[in-house]
Amino acid sequence: MAFPEYVRLVEVGARDGLQNEPNPVSTETKLELIDRLGAAGISYIEAASFVSPKWVPQMGDAREVMTGIQRRPGITYAALTPNIKGLEGALETGVQEVAVFGAASESFTQKNINCSIAESLERFAPVIEMAQKAGVPVRGYVSTVLGCPYEGEIAPQKVAEVSKTLFEMGCYEISLGDTIGVGTPLKAKRMLEAVNRHIPMEKLAAHFHDTYGQALANLYAVLEEGISVVDSSVAGLGGCPYAKGASGNVASEDVVYLLHGLGIKTNINLQLLAETGDWITRSINRPNRSKVGVAFMAGKASS
Ligand SMILES: CC(C)(COP(=O)([O-])OP(=O)([O-])OC[C@H]1O[C@@H](n2cnc3c(N)ncnc32)[C@H](O)[C@@H]1OP(=O)([O-])[O-])[C@@H](O)C(=O)NCCC(=O)NCCSC(=O)C[C@@](C)(O)CC(=O)[O-]
């Protein structure tokens, strides 16, 4: 199969990227990050998460973030909403899209959202229904698609089952999360094939973490299969609070560099994106995990 002509990046740096930061990140910093990402040409920004602040304190300012964004035309600003309480909060801020998040592993679902897979799906049904009534599209995440921190291997069939259910419940797109970054290209392809038997490729997204340094290789593999939506995080920020040792998402700068090298359009200004990665990592005192970002900034410093 040929590569797609255009890939939409779903930038999750402000949410997945920051949710696990041990030190508080100010609302002001989050808002500047979101604004810079928009200026760099990102068209979809996952900006916040309406979850319990007891579970994920770093996302406790979701309302302030969502209402503080200077919205740019053509950009979708989205938020995670695990239940009706979260959705109500998000809708009050005029959120444009929301996402529910399940997993293909029972243990991870328990640790992450305190219920079984079946209960999570029951809980999502009214969330999806209410969002749709409000005219807000719902994205569905499925975590642990290539491995679970508690259960190890996850059967592609299980990933397909949960994905299919979320899709049939009304999620317009299913994002397949390698939460702990253990996947390899062949595994990623096999998992995608299993899901694609039930869901069209254009309704699927790849959400790969880079813990084992395989994320770009895995992305290349699924791009070959026709994936055209990729979740990533500027400077490779992030990790999941309920997946110990999981490092950040694949870095947005690295993904954009790969895509442009393959002749795939993104409408993203890589220089501005690299500057954003440099700025946020300095602001929160983190290493920049984007090789492309570091190289770009070194080139700029020496020129
Ligand atoms: C889902 C719950 C809330 C269930 O948590 P629970 O304790 O079972 O919920 P509950 O309904 O019993 O409520 C307990 C308390 O939380 C409050 N509460 C309840 N809901 C909300 C809400 N929406 N917003 C604010 N507060 C809320 C509720 O009001 C109550 O407060 P109290 O009466 O004790 O003061 C909890 O488990 C939770 O918040 N989990 C969040 C976990 C999380 O955010 N994980 C990271 C995101 S997933 C991820 O990163 C993976 C992904 C998506 O990136 C893809 C990948 O990489 O694989």
From TrEMBL:
Domain of life: Bacteria
InterPro entries named among the record's database cross-references: Aldolase_TIM, HMG_CoA_lyase_AS, HMGL, PYR_CT
GO molecular function: hydroxymethylglutaryl-CoA lyase activity; metal ion binding
One example of a Gene Ontology biological process annotation: L-leucine catabolic process
Pathway listed: Metabolic intermediate metabolism; (S)-3-hydroxy-3-methylglutaryl-CoA degradation; acetoacetate from (S)-3-hydroxy-3-methylglutaryl-CoA: step 1/1
Pfam families documented for this protein: HMGL-like
Domain Pyruvate carboxyltransferase: 7-274
Catalytic reaction annotation: (3S)-3-hydroxy-3-methylglutaryl-CoA = acetoacetate + acetyl-CoA
Gene3D superfamilies on file: Aldolase class I (3.20.20.70)
The protein's Enzyme Commission number: 4.1.3.4
UniProtKB keywords: Lyase, Metal-binding
Family recorded in the similarity comment: Belongs to the HMG-CoA lyase family.
Record protein name field: hydroxymethylglutaryl-CoA lyase
Organism annotation: Marinospirillum alkaliphilum DSM 21637
Organism lineage string: Bacteria, Pseudomonadati, Pseudomonadota, Gammaproteobacteria, Oceanospirillales
